[in-house]
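Page header: ASSEMBLY MODEL / two components / 570 residues total.
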Amino acid sequence: MPWISNSPSPSAAARAVSRRRRPFARAVKQSPPVIQKFLPPPPSPELSSDAKVSAFCAAVAEFSRCRPASPLPSPGSSPSRRHPSAYNALMTSFSRSGDADEVIRLFRELMLWHPIPNALCYNTLINSLAVANRYDHVDKLFDEMVASGVAPTTASYTILLKSRSFDPNFIEYAYKLIPLMVQSGCQPDTSSYTMLIAGLCRARRMDEAWGVLDQMVEDKLLPTVQSYTCIVQGYCSEGRIKEAKRLVARMEGIGCPPDVVTHGILIEALCEAGEFHEVEKLLMESEKKGWKPNEVIYNIYMNGFCKAGKIDESFRLLEVMLTNELHPTIVTLNILFECLCRDSKVWEAKCLLERSAQLGWDPDVFFYNSLMSRFCKMNELVCVLKLFNDLFKKGINPDSCTFTIVIRSLCKAGMLRRAKCLFSNSSFAADVVAFNTLLHEFYRAQEFNEVRALYIKMISENIIPNKFTYCIMIDTLCRERRYMDAIDCFLRSLMIGFFPDLVIRLNNWLVKAGKLREILNLAEGLLCRGLVIDVSVFSALIRALCKEGYCKSNDLDRVCLLLERMLGMK
DNA sequence: CTAGGGTTAG
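Prediction written out in full:
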């Protein structure tokens, strides 16, 4: 397999494992049947007549019956001279279907006939790359556009904002970009402002998001459903459901009634909070309130039930969906598939996947990930690797999630080196989660040098560490008693945001080691950056003081000074 | 051409 360099293939790994298991299997064969019930059930060769399995099959049948005919022209058709607007229409179409590579190809082809494409074409291209998270290309292409004398439009800038809206440094970027935008004669429009609001909400800066909304009104731009929906989502992701509900209610009053998207966000949050009755109520009132639940709404609701372990309810919703003449989508199938996996029907799920072609659906990477993730939890490494193999055989591209599952499975079986090999392969686009997974495993194995090396690799590959990464690094440094480095590491984490639980964690290490001076350094580091010292840091100080012997501490003056500053006396 | 929602991983 091409993605593993100089290392045995997964099938070899699978063989190695099954070799190791063979004596065990033999032993079981000869022992009384009582032991056999501790073994996983063998994969069932035939589909069982289980009600949920047949419901899933019915959903598949409905899915394949209602599948639209391919709306797209086949990629790679021979170049022919087309008008730029025809190219743009084609590119938009491929961009919407998520095929950024085909958009790039079309753009290149367009340049053969029209060496300087117009702003619209550039926008479409850049947007498709932004959607595909290919940020480096976004910036390069924008510069290229400007360099070739094509004036960016307001939409160009909005796309730039979008490409950064998940970046931890979004706000700084946006506040730099907007003046530039105005300077070049592009006034921010409703969509630019909405993008700004979306980014602020993602960064949990709700007050500022409201501020932008006020600014919009001042600029005589009316906020739209989209603008408010971003804020609803901001509240929901912070768990502030009451405020989200209140805002949704208020939207009706100000002539901006919440639509199906707004409700989807609210329903997802309600499900997560276990307020399923509230969801039911919203659905009952939907007609009266002027919105109509679509497939996505049911998917969200079904997924909510699935996550809460209410598998029967998920399948009940499938029936409701069908009676409302809504067709299952590939996402619906995936959620139901996940339900089967959770409902101890893993082996049936495996069987379903094996017969997908016969049943009438093309499983995508999500189906494989769901099943592999289940097998990973069950320590069924061989099954994981076999599915990983099947995926390649079918020509499905694994995503970073697939790799994370494989890495976890390998690590769980004690094969850390093999997991590391996956990382050395260039075709594996590791993301933060994948890195965190392996980092965590090396940490658990106390291979701190490997942790460090991997962290350096991560930085060099421009993967921005997140909270979990810093957590592992802080733990690692503390385990090595490098407390000052741990503090430095924490202070670096402030670049991506302030996480109180990281402070608490670091403090616990410092207290445990009786590192009073380091606690003071940390507290001062926080204060001089204008951050509020949490009560946990305060109590950690007291605890460390007690441990050290209050009177003996030479640092008492510094503690008092800190406490005074905390209380706002100085 | 551009703004808000759904499935998987730590």
